[in-house]
Amino acid sequence: MTTLKELRELANSGERMTVEFKETLSEAVIRGLSTDFASFANTSGGIIVIGIDDSHNLVGYRPEKSERNRISQEAGNCRPPVLIDFQKLTFQKKHFLVVNVPVSSSFHCDKRFRYPVRVGNTTQFLDPAGIITLVRNRLFD
Q1: Please, what's the largest Cα pairwise distance for the chain?
Q2: What would the 3-class secondary structure string for the chain be?
Q3: The CATH fold of domain 4-140
Q4: Which residues pair with 96 in a beta bridge?
Q5: Digits of tens for pLDDT over the chain (141 positions)?
């Protein structure tokens, strides 16, 4: 995503299996990121766009350096750690942070040792049977 038009199209399409929006990086949002990261990595990969609100408005957000470090720490809190990458976007004096989470060949739990996956635009947690099925699918794909 490199243009304002692409960002607007993304916002208009709404959240889905591979896209999550966060208006800001509140303490609650930061604490929940390990779950978001593990769910994307366990499913199809995805992006988290910080600076888009629940109504899909492009409100913008400019995180402090310490917040980017905390985002990275939350990815490291997953087991095994989830690889992430950042992209900063600026359009019309509004800043956005896109956190890219690639699909992983490993299977990740969040910092609370739960195994999340994306189902549509929500995060669900696998029970033991779901974990076994996912591991089997990964082994034989």
Answers
A1: 48
A2: CCCHHHHHHHHHHCCECCEEEECCCCHHHHHHHHHHHHHHHHCCCEEEEECECCCCCECCCCCCHHHHHHHHHHHHCCECCCCCEEEEEEECCEEEEEEEECCCCCCCECCCCCCEEEECCEEEECCHHHHHHHHHHHHHC
A3: 3.30.950
A4: 89
A5: 668 888 999 999 999 999 999 999 999 999 999 999 999 999 999 999 999 999 999 999 988 888 999 999 999 999 999 999 999 999 889 999 999 999 999 999 999 999 999 999 999 999 999 999 988 887 887
